[in-house]
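Protocol step 4 of 6.
Sequence for EF-hand domain-containing protein (Panicum miliaceum) entered exactly as in the expression construct, tag removed. Do not edit the line below.
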Amino acid sequence: MATRRQHRRAFPLVPLLLALMAAAAYGRLISDGSPSAPLVSVIRLAAPAAAAAAEGKCEQSYGFLPCTTTVLGNLFLVLVYGFLMFKAATYLSAGSELLLEIMGPGLVGGLLLPILGALPDALLVLVSGLSGSKETAQSQVLIGMGLLAGSTVFLLTLLWGTCVVVGKCDLGPNREAVDLTNTKGFSLTGTGITTDVQTSYAARIMGLSVIPFIIAQFPKMLKTHHGQRLAVLLALIASFLLVLSYCLYQVFQPWIQRRKLAYAKHKHVISGILRHAQMQALGRLLNDDGTPNDDVIRKLFHKIDIDKSRTLSRAELHALIVGINFEEVDFDRMDAVDKVMDDFDTSRNDAVEEEEFVQGMKKWLNEAKRSVPASGAFSNKFINEFHERTRQEHDQLIDRSDEVVESVENPGWCIAKAVGFLLLGAAIAAAFADPLVDTVHNFSSATHIPSFFISFIALPLATNSSEAVSAIIFASRKKQRTCSLTFSEVYGGVTMNNTLCLGVFLALIYFRNLTWDFSSEVLIILVVCVIMALFTSFRTTFPLWTCLVAYMLYPLSLVIVYILDYVFGWS
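Step 5 output, structure tokens:
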């Protein structure tokens, strides 16, 4: 049955407007000590804040955005601009996902979408050394290196380890994780996760992505300054060749895109069923305090149970799914039935009993609560908001039947909406990347904390938090296939960071003739990437203790940089 989706996701512009209004209002008090900051008629493209800071003042980005020299003021602005970069990443993610659903795996998904995913990080890296004099650029470019190193280390340590913790299941006799079984608590050797072999291929690709770092660092390894500029140029060429190769690999071997496509589409099974249940006028699925309403869930079960057998058969689930408006995407209904059955039928008797249905619905509702921040009572609108989420509603990963691109009605409107999301995300990222870098630099000056450490810790949270939440929620499904997709996404993000974002950084170094003096920073990237690549490329099962290894690499990275730079004077 053809269906039509009227709304995919109504991204709220209100938080963006509130953030801008707050920043503007706050700026009247903090701009340069005067009651109000005048609006400069000529908007500059970049703000060399360091020169103004040297005179005890700050210079407004674009001539009108607020600035300050105080610690709390800069902290506030870092939060505001960081939130705006987070929204930019969310819009880009939503537009990319919608475009992939419409166009399917191919040139668009293989060439364009990986680049769009890395755009916020790339823009922040670009503006960190684009403005001001050569001395200013050399000072601020350390923020770009901090983001570059911080994003890679964050994805492979804190996020990787957390996904192992939330996705862990009992390890069976063959040392593979048993889906949906978690009876051994936090046993370091008896629980863990298992991925498929394709995920290890993604890890190997990630390992190869460190080659440009090695090329750029080669003269430093030889302890010579000769040939450093040539090494940067060669590393720059290698970076973009690797980006092109990785994108072409996805075009001609589109299993990565197909995973993302299944990842995006199957969420409508969960959200569609929840919304359909809410619309049946049987009562609210959630109480005012956010707890699932058992009575309403049981009423829904009895309504679906047409033959009154007190179990739901595949035929009854199929009838339910056929009657749901899944909107523009025409799903394979039988495949959706298989996934619902697999998620609810914990006894594996090919039927969903009443208690299994109640527990399954509770699990879905709790996932919805984690995905959609609730304000006040949990109303009918809550379920609709969950349905409209584009990246934070997840269920199982794919098998071969998932790799079919369903037809889409009204593709012109969908493409226009996807392009609108992409343009909005790109515009926000381009507009606020430079103010964020300036604010981090000002905060560093105000606190006397090296800008590298601030950008290493703070900026990856702004640009990667949306993907991190999605990965954690998806890993919490506790299945091999969902874990496989989660870790493939993590390795893909690191690959683009080590190639595209590094390429942008190397271009700054080369064309602005800046000094390549990042030995300690490059070392921690190499250490973390090589350890995790070797660790994940040749095995598919990861016991719980492996998360401790990942977690320890994060503070170790900071300690290494501090000791090498401030004790041994590497930089």
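Step 6, annotate. The radius of gyration is 25 Å.
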